[in-house]
From TrEMBL:
SUPFAM superfamilies: Pyrrolidone carboxyl peptidase (pyroglutamate aminopeptidase) (SSF53182). The keyword Zinc does not apply. The gene is pcp. It is an enzyme of class 3 (hydrolase). PANTHER family: PROTEASE FAMILY C15 PYROGLUTAMYL-PEPTIDASE I-RELATED, PYROGLUTAMYL-PEPTIDASE I. InterPro entries: Peptidase_C15, Peptidase_C15-like, Peptidase_C15-like_sf, PGP-I_bact-type, PGPEP1_Cys_AS. Belongs to the peptidase C15 family. It comes from the Bacteria. Its EC number is 3.4.19.3. Removes 5-oxoproline from various penultimate amino acid residues except L-proline. Keywords: Cytoplasm, Hydrolase, Protease, Thiol protease. This is Pyrrolidone-carboxylate peptidase. Homotetramer. The keyword Cytoplasm applies.
Amino acid sequence: MRKVLVTGFEPFGGERVNPSWEVVKQLGDLELSGAQIVVRQLPCVFGKAIDTLNAAIDEILPEMVICVGQAGGRVDFSLERVAINVDDARIPDNEGNQPVDETIVAGGPAAYFSSLPIKTIVSGLRESGIPACVSQTAGTYVCNHVMYGLMHRLAQPSCKVVKGGFIHIPYLPEQAAKHPGAPSMSVHTVLNALELTIAIALHTEQDLKIAGGATH
């Protein structure tokens, strides 16, 4: 049976939970759309996060990899379009590292694009009543770091992973309650969105060519 690796992060930035892991862990060992879902938690630590991801890919040999992270303040389930080759941390990671203007992969491309059918996924989620969008930036923190590391791995000729990408999700309601005015999305909604994302990604060979850009 083909396998899909889905990752979430440990809590960071003073939060007691990370919505990405709270949702992703519920997918562990499920079978969806003819694929076994395998989940792993990544540390919110520069360098170690990519090492942990690569070790999981080596162990599991997945057909597809989807990494998920928290984006407090966002209102949508956000499919990231691009990762850039720079670490520029506004806050330290969970081991106190705070790289500024450092490359992720020396000599690597300036950017990599997601190989998930991001516009088809967004369209499917919206049709199912789930707020979703194409995001034009994954930031410059550990989430972008991991997405770049993933896509760099997929770009290697020896890599057997067919598709990969990154998704940002809002706070959980219990987190937003401590950040007055911040939007949130329930575990149930995000879980439904992830299951639909996996199904669409596994069965879509050509992404839709529809507008998904931004004016700013």
